[in-house]
Amino acid sequence: MNDNTVTESIKGDRSMTQGFVAQYAAEAAMQIDGVYELVPSFAVALKEKAGVVHEGKGVRVVFGQTQNDIVSITIYPVIIYGKIIPEVAWSIQERVKADVEKYTGLDVESVDVYVCGVRKPDNEEES
Predict the structure, then answer these.
(1) Residues 6 or more apart from 101 whose CB is under 8 A from it?
(2) Mind listing the domains of the chain with CATH numbers?
(3) Residue 127: which pLDDT band, with cuts at 50, 70 and 90?
(4) How far apart are CA 33 and CA 57, in angstroms?
(5) Is the pTM higher than 0.85?
(6) Which of the 8 DSSP states describes residue 10?
(7) Residue 41 has what DSSP assignment?
(8) How far apart are the first and last CA of the chain?
(9) pLDDT tens for each residue of 62-104
């Protein structure tokens, strides 16, 4: 079985890729006040340079080893300057967990947040 796909369900067969789950997680994270952007990993950046489109950049999704309905998510945000980083990170964790569980039916085991930087909001940047 491919690590990239979930294929069992009580209601019937379903197929869910890491990119599909990552897209939900990225959209949830970007709705948090204080998140400027999500930073793609090095591997994703290389794929994009090669022309491969990657859904949910700035998010890494790993399905459970023994159960495919359990997922771990890692988010790589850039936070807006002046926001309290731990509060923004906590909000990301709560929102991503709730949205992914609600819209995919998967159990989110963990949501890890690795802040990749801090940036001034666009309206405050100097020319």
Answers:
(1) 107, 108
(2) 5-117 (3.30.70.1350)
(3) very low
(4) 19
(5) no
(6) T
(7) P
(8) 52
(9) 888 877 788 999 999 999 999 999 999 999 999 999 999 999 8
